[in-house]
Amino acid sequence: MDYLPLSCPPKDRDSLQAEGEVALVGAGPGDAGLLTLKALQQIQLADVVVYDRLVSDEVLNLVRHDAERIFVGKASGNHCVPQQQINQILVEQAQRGKRVVRLKGGDPFIFGRGGEELEALAVAGIRFSVVPGITAASGCSAYSGIPLTHRDHAQSVRLITGHAKQDGVLDWPCLAQEKQTLVFYMGLSQAGEIQHQLTQHGLAVNTPVALIENGTTASQRVFTGELWQLSALATQVISPSLIIIGSVVQLRSKLNWFPDNG
What domains are there in the chain, each with its CATH number? Predict the structure, then answer.
């Protein structure tokens, strides 16, 4: 694949490399076709790419062939490289004059700890930029025929992490309201608690739910059911998966366009 035109002439790129910098780039939910043009340009200019487990092979294949790749693959409950060490890697690589891309699945500012990493760079005096990506909620819902909002079904969307910091408490009474769509990231291990809390706070047990595994990719699988079945459905899928709860899930039967293996 040909590289996109560079955004600055070679002499300016040399001076940037001497100083070092980090671009925080969203890789999207999996389908490389959903990568933004600016994200593609950044990963093809990078000397070093620091990437997570959720970055698809399709996207990694677009990285410049001679770039160094550093895997820091975080998975739920299994961080092979602690966050503090990731921060240090970014700082050290930039201090060596490298053009670094921190590549994250989805959007780095939506449950991606992108803000924490930029704080570390700011403290170290490292220049940085941000390229947003298509977040999993948007990509997975679109590829599942489930609109996140609809005038007849949902006037708001809530994006929720299934793994809050210790002592983090969700506002379950607000979440258990009708006419909204709930999207839980990293929620598989908490599916039973999500089901229990939402029903205990008044959300109807027959509220439609969907679990989307490997969304936007050729291995995508979608399982649908009702809220009272959520815990059981969660045992049928593997990470990475997204949970969507709300009446918009009903529309999948009419609007689904993407073939999947569910």
Answer: 10-134 (3.40.1010.10), 137-255 (3.30.950.10)
For the annotated catalytic residues, the residue numbers are: 52, 74
Using CA atoms, how far residue 221 sits from 154, 193, 250, 260, 262, in Å, is 24, 23, 17, 5, 4
How far apart (Å, rounded) are the C-alpha atoms in residues 239 and 254?
A: 26
Give the whole-angstrom CA distance, residue 227 versus residue 204: 8
Distance of alpha carbon 106 from alpha carbon 114, whole angstroms = 11
Q: Spell out where 214-260 has E strands.
A: 221-226, 241-245
CB 11 within 8 A of CB 40: no
Beta bridge partners of residue 71, listed in sequence order? 51
User: In this predicted model, what pLDDT tens digit does every residue of 18-49 receive, in sequence order?
Assistant: 689 999 999 999 999 999 999 999 999 999 99
Identify the CA nearest to 249 among candidates 215, 213, 218, 207: 207
Torsion of CA 89, 92, 98, 99, to 10 degrees: 50
The three state secondary structure string of 114-166 is: HHHHHHHHHHHCCEEEEECCCCHHHHHHHCCCCCCCECCCECCEEEEECCCCC
Spatial separation of the C-alpha atoms in residues 122 and 103, rounded to whole Å: 18
pLDDT at residue 203 in the model: 98
DSSP at 21: E
What global pTM score does this model have? 0.89
Q: Which residue from 220, 253, 238 is spatially nearest to 34, judged by alpha carbons?
A: 220
**What tokens were used for 47?**
């000397």
How far is the CA of 52 from the CAs of 65, 166, 169, 221, 243, in angstroms? Answer: 18, 23, 27, 22, 21
